[in-house]
Amino acid sequence: MVDNVDRVLEQWRAERPDLDAAPMGVIGRISRAARCLERELQEIFDRHGLQTWEFDILATLRRSGRPYQLTAGGLVASAMVTSGAITNRIDRLVARGLVTRVTDPNNRRSVLITLTDQGLDLVNEAVERHVANEHRLLSVFTQAEQDELAGLLRTLLESLGDTPA
Questions:
Q1: Which positions fall inside the HTH marR-type domain (predicted)?
Q2: Looking at beta carbons, which pairs linking 25-31 to residues 24 or more positions away fall under 8 Å?
């Protein structure tokens, strides 16, 4: 079986036989897979009227446990976005009625972001379909292969500095 990346590698072998372009195969396939997966994931989010970043914030609040609330700083750390970006994103989610934003009564310099009932219902429905979709996308692999792939990708991400804060 030959894919588009194989064709690119063959062209490099023909044009630059002195160059070991093998890493392009791995990186190219990871990049292409990421783009394909993003498209597939966005289809589910579209059905729920969500952008990926909206789902990310709602899911971050949902998995934080009752009362589904985090400080803006906690949300920045968990959602891996900048504080400037999170402010704009929270504004948009507040406008949609999916979260509320209030000053923390225990620390007036802090803001609490909380899922509304509407936001909770939406993320609960979306996450079920999202996980089912991810199972479908990975069904080409056995569970052992999925575990192996997850371990290999974890090692790569750690080597690139993507470690827990």
A1: 20-158
A2: 29/3, 29/5
Residues 6+ apart with CB under 8 A from 122: 48, 50, 58, 98
Cβ atoms of 77 and 118 within 8 Å: the answer is no
Burial of 101 (C-beta count, 10 Å sphere; 0-12/13-18/19+):
middle
Q: What is the pTM of this model?
A: 0.86
Residues 109 and 119 in one domain: yes
**CATH code of the domain in which 84 resides:** 1.10.10.10
Residue 164 lies in a domain: no
Same domain assignment for residues 57 and 96 = yes
Is residue 165 one of the residues assigned to a domain? no
What is the residue whose two structure tokens read 């979306």? 126
Number of neighbours of residue 4 by Cβ within 10 angstroms = 10
Q: Could you report the per-residue pLDDT of 4-57, keeping only the tens digit for each?
A: 999 999 999 999 999 999 999 999 999 999 999 999 999 999 999 999 999 999
Q: Pick from 148, 58, 136, 56: which is nearest to 99 by CA?
A: 58
Cis status, amide bond into 23, omega within 30 of 0: no
